[in-house]
Model the fold of this input.
Amino acid sequence: MAKHIVDEFTFSLSEVKPCLADNMRVRIIAQFETDLAPILEILFLYFRNANYSRNLHCVTTKRAGQSTTVFGSGRVAMTFLKNEQEAIDRLRELSNTFSKAYTYLENTGPADSETVEKKENINALQIHKLLPQTDCGECSESGCFAFATLLMNGEREIDDCNPMKLRENADKRSNLVKLIQPIDLTNIREDRSDLAEFLGLKR
Done:
């Protein structure tokens, strides 16, 4: 298996197979050589559409029909990919996210357990309360509650709701983002000189 190195993270593809639902797409299993358990809850709070399984010790997120599951052991499973190259590209993106999550952990500490529990219990009704509730149909759904359900399941994005882009709904949008994405790693600046040592890669 070829190894890929992105910053401080090394991963290899251990399995590439056709998707069960569409044999023109592939599903993969990859293995990172880094313990991801310390950042699982941070990832859960960062990914907008995610489920956290304490029993399986993993976080699953969905995007554009693709499902990605990150295990604390470093194993990563992905589905509905175009080909192996897309898998490698997505794993490289994940490596960058892992790096930022570890930087967050080092600078801020572990994810707040109360916030984790709150996100675990999010339901469509809570999301619906933060939507404009106009049932305008601009999103092509039957109403705001239907949209809220799809948003919760990772099948729609906040910006698919046009009224949420209006200035008068700025506070609602901000509160909705905080509800489904309590941690934002986008602007995290990584100090790579310390990160390798933090990950135990320096001896």
